[in-house]
Amino acid sequence: MSQVIAIGPYSDTDAAALARDFDARRLPDLAAIATLPEDQRRDVVAVAFMGHDPFGGAVMDLLPGLKAITNFGVGYDAIDVAAATARGIRVTNTPNVLNDDVADLAVAMWIAQARDFEPAMQNARSGDWGRGVRLPLARKASGRRVGILGMGRIGREIADRLAAFKTEIHYQSRSRKDTPAGWTYHADPVELARAVDDLIVAVVGGPETEGFVSAGVIGALGPDGVIVNIARGSVIDEEALIAALQSGAIRGAALDVFRGEPQVDPRLLAAPNLLALPHIGSATVETRAAMGQLQRANLRAILDGRAPETPVN
Ligand code: 8YV
């Protein structure tokens, strides 16, 4: 049995590299670990993990020799890091290499929502345009006041891009950051939402940000507001968002991430003012290649007894 298990929807290139460099055995998901015979589970020292299924202590205990979980992704909220640390298991992630892609997507979603891309594309493609069907006018994106929830590495890349759109930039994060003059810090997310037109969610997922975009935050944004989320579905109170989209309490939302994805609440998908994407923030050839390389560099380092490049714990 190989020492490395690879779990998740890897590209052919990454799957081949994991097999070639680590003799990794592919498993479809975490649940498949329990189906391996005990002597095979005992041999496993590392899991190259991709995906968002909860990776908790009970799964770790099925692999008594486990030394490393190398996550393909910057967000590791699916992994119980405290449980891993308690068991002496190293966790690594793939930060930075995806910042550009995720920030590009956030800005694209923000513009697409302001300019009503979805109905406009439908109008052109369906032939409605040619039949004289006129669309209501959209909203101008440049110059809006935008609030960024979470001014980490990705939040900062988003803000830097938005600055070129003559926006007024506001942000909320755990602490005030060193930013260009004129960016306004808010300690409280409701206060942030009250000060801006649109809100872009770029905080980490996990218990500390669960439901952070609450009914109060959504309500404070107001009927002209748009919420963009490229972080994690868990950050938004989806019930409150559905109610706000249905009632017109906000103008719309653009979401790349959802609670329980890839299953999405049908009430969200039915909302006409929702732009939905299937979690493609880092999904480019270039970035996924860089993420794969970093994951494998971390794996190699840990197996060789060296410090990994991007440790989490
Ligand atoms: C995922 C992501 O890694 O990096 C993250 O945190 O959410 C994505 O880039 C990707 O969807 C593979 O699971």
From TrEMBL:
Domain D-isomer specific 2-hydroxyacid dehydrogenase catalytic span(s) in chain numbering: 41-313
CDD domains: HPPR
Entry keyword annotation includes NAD: yes
Keywords, sorted A to Z: NAD, Oxidoreductase
One Pfam family named in its UniProt record: 2-Hacid_dh_C
Residues covered by the D-isomer specific 2-hydroxyacid dehydrogenase NAD-binding domain: 107-281
Classification via SUPFAM superfamilies: Formate/glycerate dehydrogenase catalytic domain-like, NAD(P)-binding Rossmann-fold domains
Family, per entry: Belongs to the D-isomer specific 2-hydroxyacid dehydrogenase family.
Protein name as it appears in the record: 2-hydroxyacid dehydrogenase
Species this protein is from: Paracoccus mangrovi
